[in-house]
Amino acid sequence: MEFRALNAEELETWLDHVTNVFTGGRRYFSNHWHNDPWRDPEGIRIAIDKGKIVSTVRVFIRKMYLQGEPVTVGGIGEVSTRSEYRRRGLATQLLKDAIGFMESRDIVTSSLHGSQRIYSVEGWEKVPRYYAKQPITAKKQVAWDVRPTNFDDHAEVEHIAALYDAYARKFNGTFVRDDLAYWTAWVRTESPSAWVAERDGEIEGYVSVVRREAQLNVKEFFVSDSVFAEDRGQQLFGDLLSNVIAQMDAESFEVIYPAPIADGFNAPVIEEHGSAMYRINLPDALPSLSDSIPDLLHNQPQSLSQGIRSHHIFWYTDGY
């Protein structure tokens, strides 16, 4: 068994492998490769048996905000082993290989979405994510004009990217999006139902949603600093979503969204769901020390603290 990085000319073979193991379809994995401006074939670690790819792990190379500053992060995804090769320790060996790769690239932290013991054994620790649930009723007449995001307008994309950057820094775990190609390719593809809220011709808020029967899930949300200073975006959040619901020709939805935003910790229902796990690869490179990984992700320094239960957010748009 050979363990190594993927060669660029093996990309189609690798896509065949993950499509065979998972049920998401080839387009999903192809989009995650071609729409990623930071893609690197060396981040795809593979196990080869008799010339065939039998197990893989991909490291998505990103940066995330932690206590207001960007730190490098390796997102662990597409952990996949052919059924006939399972229970042989291949995924464990590839995770070890991925850790070595991240350390060689000075990638400070690592994150993944799962809760299996295989990850905790190798040093990843679970950090809860809290979600709010509340009903929102359709309403068209609101304080903001609401319309779909125009990803073809370069100036608009630049503006919402700047709004996103300022807002995302207020939380921990949000990904840095400092390449406009990520917005026009990845974000556009992963969040096809994205909306902006304008007032006096100025975009002040943005939301991306996905509809699932009677529920509306918020994939991401952000507002301008001036709106945030008023009420942390609470009114805009409600107005924006009520207008979106009206434009969907619906009467109301149960809206599910990260509790740290828009006063969500005071919503009628707060639940923990979605397993996020983090690993610290290079502790000396962190902005500050903390008693534990959950403490590091949930808390902010005084200058960024909002006095809420948790500052930890991961936007589903950035999912890998």
Any overview of this molecule?
The chain has 320 residues and is an alpha+beta fold. The protein folds into 2 domains: 2-128 and 275-287, Gcn5-related N-acetyltransferase (GNAT) (Aminopeptidase, 3-Layer(aba) Sandwich); 131-272, 3-Layer(aba) Sandwich (Aminopeptidase), CATH 3.40.630.30. The chain is 29% helix and 31% strand. It is built from 9 helices and 14 strands. The chain has helices at 11-21, 26-34, 90-104, 117-121, 154-168, 180-190, 225-231, 234-247, 293-298, and strands at 2-5, 44-49, 52-66, 69-81, 109-113, 125-127, 130-137, 145-148, 194-199, 202-212, 215-223, 252-258, 269-272, 276-280. The strands form 2 sheets. Strands 1-2-3-4-5-14-6 form a 7-stranded mixed β-sheet. β2 and β3 (52-66) form a beta hairpin. The two termini are 27 Å apart. The relative contact order is 0.17. The mean pLDDT is 96.
